[in-house]
Amino acid sequence: MAYEVTSKLRERLKSLLATQPEEKALLQAFYTDPEIYQHDIERIHLRHWLCVGHKSEIPNPGDWFRFDVAGESLIIVHGTDGEVRALLNVCRHRGSLVCAEQAGHSNRLTCPYHGWTYDLEGRLRAARNMPGLDHAAHSLGTVHCRVVAGLIYVCFAEEAPDFALAEKVLTQSLGRFGWADAKVAHRASYSVDANWKLVTENYQECYHCRPSHPEFARFHATERPDEKTVDLREESSRQAAAQGIEIEEYDLWPMGDGEGGEGVSCANDAMYEGSVTGSRDGAPLAPLMGDFKDYCGGFFTYVETGPASFFLAYPDHGLVYLFMPRGPQRTDMEVLWLVDGKSEEGTDYSKEEVTWLWDITSLADKRIIEHNQQGVNSRYYVPGPYGPMERMTRMFSAWYKEQIRP
Ligand code: FES
Ligand SMILES: [Fe+2]
Q1: Is the CB of 93 under 6 A from ligand 1?
Q2: Per DSSP, what are the bridge partners of residue 72?
Q3: How far apart are CA 30 and CA 38, in angstroms?
Q4: Protein residue with its CA nearest to atom 4 in ligand 1
Q5: Which of 192, 198, 209, 349 has the fewest CB atoms within 10 Å, i.e. the most exposed one?
């Protein structure tokens, strides 16, 4: 389906981009206008790679879960051949959802409406009372799908952005944290009444961490970009390198490599002395993951790919953030907590403790992002300047303007 920008929207975008002040927050219309929202989805979410979950959620052939994003519904299925595929959840008969449930296990996918039945690769296997029907011409559609470091990615575009560099960065970072063998300790959804860009922008900066996240700011050096924290970062990276874990940093998000490759960034960070992981008191939470033999004095890594997938890895647990636009002023934030795949809840970790920090932090983010949207909706809103700690947010705005240019 070719997407075409109407001439009215083209003129409107041109005039907005011409009046958008340089180096400042975006104009109100970019956060409120339903037509621009739809344009964002077409130009950004339907063209880039999006993480949809972790492979451990569908460990066995026949396992599947439904994932709705960008106004579409997908069935993410673990095939009998071991491959993970993304099937379009749109029946080839008269278009019903094939899977209405959120997850399941089956050898066949049967449409609830008239009973057309597909195999796990999306091939039509049975259609009642349809003499002469060409089954081969009525397979479910598919979109690009790949698994990297246990993370399942999809892309709706016919020609997906090159993912080779992103794959390399994910493997050399989250791969070392053992994410391919991790399991999901908990999954939660936070519905945020705000435009998706306010959510993404918030996750690009830690300028807000001290006033908004006292529990996080207490232990994570991210909230203070001064010399002392530079030393801490070097020391924790040195300790990681001493046990053979060298995670190279990349700064290619969101622009990509300039040759059509998907944007990716990777940065290592440190905890303040005396704390080693993202917990209530900075103390260990769960068995070490991947190649880690100890906590390296409090070493953690941020990774980001494409417009809607954000990751945070500590040596003993990890966080997956999926940002899903639902409307001009609504975004779902799906959060997955990962732990080592062999660990047992209750024996090796407490779910309540593992999820404590990033649950209260996500709730606080929901609150501040919603306040942001409410202020932006005011007729008195005027875009203000970005500060030095908002470098990534500024880069995101610049990228966004390029993506939506008519
Ligand atoms: S719409 Fe699916 S079987 Fe009719
Ligand atoms: Fe935050």
Answers
A1: yes
A2: 69
A3: 11
A4: 114
A5: 209
Q: How confident is the model at residue 2 (pLDDT cuts 50, 70, 90)?
A: confident
State the burial class of residue 64 (Cβ atoms within 10 Å of its Cβ: 0-12, 13-18, 19+): buried
Q: To test ligand 1's pocket by mutation, which of 116, 130, 135, 140 has the most ligand atoms within 8 angstroms of CB?
A: 116
Question: What is the CB-side half-sphere exposure of residue 193 using CA atoms within 13 A?
Answer: 7
Report the C-alpha gap between 133 and 148 in whole angstroms. Answer: 38
In the sheet where 330-340 sits, what is the strand order?
182-192, 330-340, 318-327, 309-313, 299-305, 264-270, 250-252
Residue pair 193/364 in contact (Cβ under 8 Å)? The answer is no
Q: Which residues, 6 or more positions from 389, have their beta carbon under 8 angstroms from its beta carbon?
A: 205, 206, 207, 225
Task: Return the half-sphere exposure (C-beta side, CA atoms, 13 A cut-off) of residue 126.
Answer: 8
**What tens digit of pLDDT does each residue of 196-233 get?**
999 999 999 999 999 999 999 999 988 887 778 888 99
pLDDT (tens digit per residue) in 131-153:
999 999 999 999 999 999 999 99
Ligand number with the minimum distance to the CA of 365? 2
Centre of ligand 2 to C-alpha 356, Å, is 15
- Per-residue pLDDT reduced to its tens digit, 248-289: 999 999 989 888 899 999 999 999 988 999 999 999 999 999
Task: Compute the average pLDDT of residues 8-30.
Answer: 97
* Portions of the chain given CATH number 2.102.10.10: 50-146
The answer on pLDDT for 392 being more than 70 is: yes
In this prediction, residues 372-377 reach a mean pLDDT of 98
Domain 162-404: which topology? Naphthalene 1,2-dioxygenase Alpha Subunit; Chain A, domain 1 (3.90.380)
- Assess whether the C-beta atom of 271 lies below 6 angstroms from ligand 1: no
Determine whether the shortest distance from the Cβ of 110 to ligand 1 is under 6 A. no
Ligand 1 atom having least distance to the Cα of 94: 1
- pTM of the predicted structure, to 2 decimals: 0.97
Mean pLDDT across the stretch 400-406?
95
Query: With 0-12 CB in 10 A as exposed, 13-18 as middle and 19+ as buried, what is 78?
Result: buried
CATH 3.90.380.10 residue ranges of the chain are: 162-404
Atom 3 of ligand 1, residue of closest alpha carbon: 114
Q: How far is the CA of 93 from the centre of ligand 1 (A)?
A: 5
What is the CATH topology of the domain spanning 50-146? Answer: Rieske Iron-sulfur Protein (2.102.10)
